[in-house]
Amino acid sequence: MMNLKRVMSLLGVGALALTLTSCAPPTIEEGWMHQGFRQWHPQEGQAQVATTGTQCYFCTPTAQPAPQRVDGDSDGDMVADSRDQCPGTPRGITVDSRGCPLNVDSDNDGIQDHADKCPQTPVGAKVDVHGCWQPGPVQFKSGSAKIGPSAQTMLKELLIVLKNNPNVTLGIHGHADNRGNDKANKKLAEGRAKAVEQYLIKGGIAKNRLMISTFGEEQPVADNKSKQGRAQNRRVEFVPQPH
User: Fold this and answer.
1) Which candidate, 50, 92, 211, 216, has a CA 20 to 30 Å from the CA of 60?
2) 3-state SS of 17-72?
């Protein structure tokens, strides 16, 4: 009986002498450790005699893989948002590895494709900051349909573009200020449009490429109450047609 009590006592002391030999975090693949603590007898050296079933829940937490960021492509240019240095690229624009539009100018008008609102500009045409060609207008003196020297300079440039682009057609729109009655202004606007048409035909442009429309005083671009405004309204405008 005494021997049994002694053995039980020694086992109790051994239990108190539990030592955590290893509580290092397992690898990602292993997950949590379940072997608990190793135990040994105080009089038998380091020979392991038992292992508790305690889960190692108070060790350094098991390493977990860092959450992967779900990266989007807001502008659809095939460059992830985290790397896109030019967000908001218009759809269909070719970009480089940074997500920035390539320096492409397909119609050679000086405006890169991503900013060009009027692609396929006629060869040699002067465009605005949006890449659009808008020739004219030609302006006239009050009550006149005669083409002046400054108008001829502009029309010569227009002739060059039309000759270099035989597939381009042109709308010719005649206008007037509000001096006089509506009927007279319609006739005057028509005379101005026809004067321009004849100038272009004499310059070598086929009549079937030119389309006349007259509006009289119906579409002012400035206030007819002022001299400057009326001068702006006495005009012929050009509307290039798609080609």
Assistant:
1) 50
2) CCECCCCCCCCCCCCCCCCCCEEECCCCCCCEEEECCCCCCCCCCCCCCCCCCCCC
Tell me if 217 sits within 8 A of 232, measured CB to CB.
Answer: no
195 Cβ neighbours under 8 A, 6+ residues apart: 145, 146, 147
Strands, DSSP E only, in the chain? 38-40, 48-51, 138-139, 170-175, 210-216, 235-240
Residue with tokens 């405006």: 111
Summary mean pLDDT of the chain: 81
* Other CB atoms within 10 A of residue 65 CB: 6
Under CATH, to which class is 138-240 assigned?
Answer: alpha beta
* For range 87-107, the mean pLDDT: 81
Angle between helices 149-164 and 182-202 (to 10 degrees): 50
| 3/5 Cα distance (integer angstroms) | 5
Q: Which of 105, 213, 205 is nearest to 155 (CA)?
A: 205
Domain boundaries, the chain: 2-51, 138-240
pLDDT band of 23, cuts 50, 70, 90:
very low
Q: Which amino acid is at 49?
A: V
Quote the CA–CA distance of 50 and 163 in Å, as a whole number: 101
Sign for the pseudo-dihedral over CA of 220, 226, 229, 230:
positive
For residue range 156-203, list pLDDT tens digits in order: 999 999 999 999 999 999 999 999 999 999 999 999 999 999 999 999
